[in-house]
Amino acid sequence: MATTFSPVSHLRSVFYTSIAPKTRLSLPDFGSASSWSASANYVKLQVAARGVSAKPLFLKHTVKKRMGVLRCATIEEIEAEKSMIEEDVRERMEKTIENVRSSFNSIRTGRANPAILDKIEVEYYGTPVVLKSIAQISTPDASSLLVQPYDKSSLKSIEKAIVNSDLGMTPNNDGEVIRLSLPQLTSERRKEFSKIVAKQAEEGKVAIRNIRRDAIKSYEKLEKEKKLSEDNVKDLSADLQKVTDEYMKKIDAIYKQKEKELLKV
């Protein structure tokens, strides 16, 4: 009697012969994104062949563990982050002190000081530039300034810039240099300048507080990432407050000095 060949039976025989004896689930290589679909089907077929229901969550969890391994930050890395924050705080606070001092210097007192021209901008060949970059400024005596441009063709532009400023000085242009005579400050003008200085000092203090606030946020971020404990953040915040107080005192010192110069008759 002739034996009838069944393709389905043959495939079933080959399938169970090659897969059934295996006791562990062997996953294909998941290295490339293009193999995800084929790999998932392969796993489902093998699991189903052994009578176990396929659970996508199990597969997802397994792949996640294989593909992403969390690593805790080392003590050295944490210390490096803390040092970066502290260094940034001091650099920004020092810059704030420089800005406050520069603003104070641009306000004239009873004595001539080249710094009062620091904020004067001159139109030079169609581009605004600071006066001190295109001219040498000196003080021949206690009540006058001498502006000597490197390029004499800029004299008119420099004269115009000084006239349009709020310095209240009339430039004397002799075709070679510009001379400025500082008039005596009236009592009213001194008080007006004193208010401006006080406002600039307060703006400096606000900037210092904002720098402190940013640093606190950085420490709290490290705490959320489990790199710092709550006690660590408290200790660092206390140290940060000491640094903040230090720079607040610096602003107070230069403010008092400037106020003294303004009110001195």
From TrEMBL:
Cellular component (GO) terms are:
chloroplast
What the record says about family reads: Belongs to the RRF family.
Organism equals: Perilla frutescens var. hirtella
Q: What's this protein's name? A: Ribosome-recycling factor, chloroplastic
GO BP terms: plastid translation
Described function: Responsible for the release of ribosomes from messenger RNA at the termination of chloroplastic protein biosynthesis.
Top-rank taxon, per record: Eukaryota
Provide the primary localization: plastid
Q: Could you tell me one molecular function GO term of this UniProt entry?
A: ribosomal large subunit binding
Query: Coiled-coil annotation: which residues?
Result: 212-246
Q: Tell me the InterPro entries matching this sequence.
A: Ribosome_recyc_fac (IPR002661), Ribosome_recyc_fac_dom (IPR023584), RRF_sf (IPR036191)
Which keywords does UniProt give here? Chloroplast, Coiled coil, Plastid, Protein biosynthesis, Transit peptide
Where in the cell is the protein located?
Answer: Plastid, Chloroplast
- Residue ranges of domain Ribosome recycling factor in the record: 102-263
